[in-house]
């Protein structure tokens, strides 16, 4: 396992944008499949999207396709979740997860971050 840290959450108005970051200490994220998930208290965790290890291929849940984009910056050892055209229903705690072996999409990641709150409200 590794320590992952999400950042970039906050309060944004509907239609706005946020960029979440996922970083790790001591491990090169390039060699890991990275998943982004979200959870609303009292509801099941939902997979948002995923980027494959050693590459840039991504998958997304239908509800965020065309609005969210996952990307890597290997020099900064960071994976981003760019969220545009945000809706109130995107409000949740967002988590990143990493695993060297799983393929997208998957929920079977062995390392998880602590999460960052995203609130979409006017």
How would you describe this structure to a colleague?
- It is built from no helices and 11 strands.
- Strands 2, 4, 5, 6, 9, 10 and 11 form a 7-stranded mixed β-sheet that branches. A 4-stranded antiparallel β-sheet has the order 1-3-8-7, with no helix packed on it.
- The radius of gyration is 13 Å and the shape is globular.
Helix content: under 10%
Taken in chain order, the helices and strands follow as EEEEEEEEEEE
Strand elements, count = 11
Tell me the major beta sheet. Answer: 7 strands, mixed
Q: Which structural category fits the helices and strands?
A: mainly beta
State the helix count: 0
Q: Are there runs of 5+ residues with pLDDT below 50, and where?
A: none
Global shape: globular
| Strand portion | over 45%
What attributes characterize this protein structure?
single chain; 122 residues; 7-stranded mixed beta sheet
SSE topology:
Blueprint: E1 4-7, E2 10-12, E3 18-24, E4 33-39, E5 46-51, E6 58-60, E7 68-73, E8 78-83, E9 92-99, E10 111-112, E11 116-120
Short description:
The protein has 122 residues and is an all-beta fold.
């Amino acid at each position: 396992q590794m320590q992952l840290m999400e950042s970039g959450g906050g309060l944004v108005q509907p239609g706005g944008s946020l960029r979440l970051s996922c970083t790790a200490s001591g491990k090169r994220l390039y060699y890991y499949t990275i998943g982004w998930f979200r959870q609303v208290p009292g509801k099941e965790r939902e997979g948002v999207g995923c980027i494959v290890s050693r590459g840039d291929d991504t998958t997304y849940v239908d509800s965020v396709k065309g609005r969210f984009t996952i990307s890597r910056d290997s020099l900064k050892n960071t994976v981003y979740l760019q969220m545009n055209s945000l809706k109130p229903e995107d409000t949740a705690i967002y988590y990143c997860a990493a695993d060297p072996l799983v393929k997208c999409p998957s929920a079977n990641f062995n390392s998880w971050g602590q999460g960052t709150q995203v609130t979409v409200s006017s």
